[in-house]
Design a protein that fits this description.
The chain is α/β, with parallel strands linked by helices. The protein has helices spanning 82-89, 104-110, 176-183, 231-234, 297-300, 306-318, 333-345, 359-363, 381-388, 403-411, 436-440, 455-467, 486-495; strands spanning 3-6, 12-14, 25-27, 33-37, 42-47, 52-53, 60-65, 70-75, 92-93, 115-116, 136-142, 151-157, 164-173, 198-206, 218-221, 261-263, 266-268, 280-284, 288-290, 325-329, 349-353, 370-372, 395-398, 419-422, 444-447, 477-482, 500-504. The chain binds nicotinamide-adenine-dinucleotide and zinc ion (2 copies). One zinc ion is lined by residues 226-227, 229-230, 232-233, 241-243.
């Protein structure tokens, strides 16, 4: 209680009201900007306050009173940007700060007492140390060699260049695609490298030409981008941006073909333009979805890849009709998000296919109604499914990355109308082999990256679905670990245990 230590700035702030419960371990976005606003009779910070908790806190919120330079941090949900607080400047706030800053009930639950905000005129300049334009030294999990445990190293992260943004990663999680490229068994090896592409963070600084993101904005990095200018970005049908589509072999930034990460001057490669296993990373602005600052980043970070991918694969690509049958191959997080999409679309039968029998119990929570384990059958799984469904399912979505499952997923759809969607990332030498007759018989084969969502245009509204309780994310999160234990998340995925493991960067 009393004093809040802001680790990024290193300056202590006194709380105004000592009765307010205060969480001491918070940190602030490193480069807030300040403007003087006459509107509320006080100077306000224009943008700042992606204040989040560390240690075991989910997240925190802050009120910033520029006149007095005080801050109140309360464990609760998420901090937002100042526009949310502007409303508070003229008001007595009953209670604390939670997801809905204006909800007295939520505030009461958070246990913060009433207090009055000061709104005197102020010209006080708040001096803040800033990392803008400077190299940041921070911790990152570096993969030095294929399949070898990651090593937490101190890395240098260069400032963002043209059309780039440097972000502070707060939470990241592991997707199977990271594991494939780390193992490099069926993919091209590129080391040393910083993996990670499913994450949530806060903008620290922006490079030349970036106008629609600002320090303090909450963002989800996405492995495939949206420049908003190319033919793909302009097409309603595609998310395969010419400039920023997924590229697993590049390892450097597009602008100058250089890495922004180094250790003692030696460059470390990026991964799919995101490299979120680092406390700070640099990302092209087109690969960042700006989201509601009130959304809890430790939950919505999984929308940055897996869950949006699975959900979109069903809703945007397979498009099952109400009452239809859907087979999902692979019941990891991506597959179960695809199942969730089928449930939302009103599918009447959702058949889950997985080699790991442990997945089946979990899958019930996602609306999977029937299970098939290919190991329990002597005939090919497509034949088993055809028998179960009087000729085949209406839709199938493959989320395994294994070529046999991809072929089965295609061959198990009904002739005449069946549609199969491939999502899994295949071995680089994999070849899809099927009789052309399967296509002539009016089956459709499709594939998708990121569930056909355009990251900047579409993901903010997927986040809103979670905020409006139309989409549940908690059930996908089966584990949590501090950053220092990131290798355990790899072990869990390799053993097929759990779905998503949230890695807390602040510890
Ligand atoms: N296309 C995209 O945009 C995109 C995005 C994210 C992930 N992916 C890919 O989606 C796949 C799933 O990712 P995840 O994070 O959910 O992985 P995961 O490891 O959590 O889940 C994969 C599941 O597939 C099962 N499986 C493996 N081989 C199988 C087979 N032959 N038949 C049936 N089940 C099988 C596994 O037992 C596991 O339960 C991966 O290939 C990943 O690379 C693609
Ligand atoms: Zn992924
Ligand atoms: Zn584009």
């Amino acid at each position: 209680m009393g004093t809040i230590g802001f680790t990024s700035f290193g300056f202590p702030l006194k709380t105004r009201n000592q009765n307010l419960p205060v969480v001491a371990s918070a940190y602030a976005s490193p480069s807030p900007e300040r403007i003087d606003s006459e509107e509320n009779g006080c100077g306000v910070l224009k943008r700042t306050t992606s204040i989040v908790s560390r240690a075991s806190l989910v997240s925190s919120s802050i009120l910033w009173f520029p006149k007095e330079g005080l801050a109140v941090v309360k464990q609760g949900l998420v901090a937002g940007r100042i526009p949310g607080y502007l409303n508070l400047m003229n008001k007595t706030v009953e209670g604390g700060l939670t997801a809905n800053l204006r909800s007295p009930a939520a505030m009461e639950m958070a246990g913060v007492r009433s207090f009055r905000t000061p709104f005197r005129k102020s010209n006080m300049k708040i001096k803040m140390s800033s990392t803008t334009n400077q190299v940041i030294r921070c911790k990152a999990a570096v993969a030095w060699e294929a399949g070898k445990p990651l090593v937490i190293e101190e890395v240098e992260v260069a400032p963002p260049q043209k059309m780039e943004v440097r972000i502070k990663i707060l939470f990241t999680s592991l997707c199977h695609t990271d594991v494939y490229f780390w193992e490099a068994k069926g993919q091209n090896p590129l080391f040393p490298r910083i993996f990670g592409h499913e994450a949530g963070g806060v903008v620290e600084s922006v490079g030349e030409g970036v106008t629609d993101l600002h320090p303090g904005d909450h963002v989800l990095p996405v492995f495939t981008g949206e420049c908003k200018e190319c033919a793909h970005c302009k097409s309603e049908e595609s998310n395969m941006c010419d400039l920023l589509r997924i590229n697993t072999d590049r390892g450097v930034m597009i602008h100058d073909q250089k890495s922004r990460f180094s250790i003692n001057g030696k460059p470390i490669f990026h991964f799919v333009g995101t490299s979120t296993f680092s406390e700070y990373t640099v990302v092209h602005v087109g690969c960042l979805a700006k989201i509601n600052p009130l959304a809890p980043l430790d939950k919505v970070c999984i929308l940055s890849c897996g869950i949006s991918t699975g959900l979109g694969a069903t809703l945007n690509v397979a498009k099952p009709k109400k009452g239809s049958s859907v087979a999902i191959f692979g019941l990891g997080a991506v597959g179960l998000a695809a199942a969730e999409g089928a449930r939302i679309a009103g599918a009447s039968r959702i058949i889950g296919v997985d080699l790991n029998a442990n997945r089946f119990e979990l899958a019930k929570k996602f609306g999977v109604t029937e299970f098939v384990n290919p190991k329990d059958h002597t005939k090919p799984v497509q034949e088993v499914i055809a028998e179960m469904t009087n000729g085949g399912v209406d839709r199938s979505v493959e989320c395994t990355g294994h070529i046999d499952a991809m072929i089965s997923a295609f061959e198990c759809v009904h002739d005449g109308w069946g549609v199969a969607v491939l999502v899994g990332v295949p071995h680089k030498d994999a070849v899809f082999k099927t009789s052309p007759l399967n296509l002539l018989n009016e089956r459709t084969l499709k594939g998708t990256f990121f569930g056909n969502y355009k990251p900047r245009s579409d993901i903010p509204s997927v986040v809103e679905k979670y905020m409006n309780k139309e989409l549940e994310l908690e059930k996908f999160i089966t584990h949590e670990l501090p950053f220092s234990e990131i290798n355990k998340a790899f072990d869990l995925m390799l053993k097929g245990e759990g779905l998503r493991c949230i890695i807390r960067m602040g510890e």
